[in-house]
Amino acid sequence: QEETPGTLLLAEAFWMMEGYFVRNLGMHRVYNSAFMHMLRDEDNAKFRGMLREVLQTSPAVLERFVNFANNPDEDSAADQFGKDRKYFGVATLMATLPGLPMFGHGQVEGYTEKYGMEYSRAYRDETPDQGFIDHHERVIFPLLRRRASFCKADHFALLDLVREGGVDENVIAYSNRGGHGRSLVLFNNQWDSTSGWVAPNHLADALRLDSAQWYGMRELHSGLWFLRSGEQLATAGLFAALDRYETQVFADWRDLQDPDGRWQGLATALDGRGVEDLDVALARHERALTSDSEPYLHRALEEEVDGVGAELAGGVVVESVAPTHEDGRSGGGLEGEESREVDALVD
After folding, report:
1. Predicted pLDDT of residue 333
2. How far is it, in rounded angstroms, from Cα 302 to Cα 275?
3. Strands, E assignment, 77-206
4. Prediction pTM value
């Protein structure tokens, strides 16, 4: 660097030596192969342990990692992760972890053929999977446009999802602050569903929350807004129920003062459910109160959640992609209409 200032030093480190290459050899970027291998093999405890070790020693190292799901030496991302929830969960981590996300050749198009310098041409006659591309447009590209919220490690915090019996190591949970404000990411990298409280007694510190306020937060995949009290978030944390390989990303946090109890009243009526617009939901709730009609109140709230409210015990609407087989992979991308599933996020 003294001889040629301004040079970018990029290294492919030996297995699990990424931190050494950054701290001791001064590399600006290091390919983080642990990201691909551990998430593919669902070595989730080891992956969380790797993040925890970096945070304890030198958090800035996270900003130097290049996170990827395929490269010329490995099988395609479609072969390793499929084209269903697991893949999009891993892609969400690529888009929201500190560092640099790297999408390989043909990854977004859903190509399955391995590529590399030894190949002068493609040997498979593949065409882009338009449904797969469209789902990237809906759930991944909007996150990439928010990279300023995720790329730094100054306010990054690795969080636990605590359920009965202890921490669920299969849930990759973390928060960050920067750019567009607060963010909270949850990814259940396992076939089984799970539920529990995210970061009891730690979430308020991680996100700089005030226990005296109420907070609105938007889940980016579904587009729904959720209302939670700062007091609950500061003590109990956030309760989350995650289906197999489900991802939730909470952003666009709103700090809500509530001197007259209006937001508390709405939260009681919603009972944990999400709505498309908090202000519209509040207005409808207050109109329902003045009408002195309980049936009208329920009808107004159900209309606000676009017909989903009646089905929820407090929930998040998530987009589901292609049908999942027993091996966790899809049968053929995102052909046809997507389904919308209801997954509980109960207060």
Report:
1. 37
2. 9
3. 100-102, 157-159, 161-163, 166-167, 171-178, 181-188, 194-198
4. 0.81
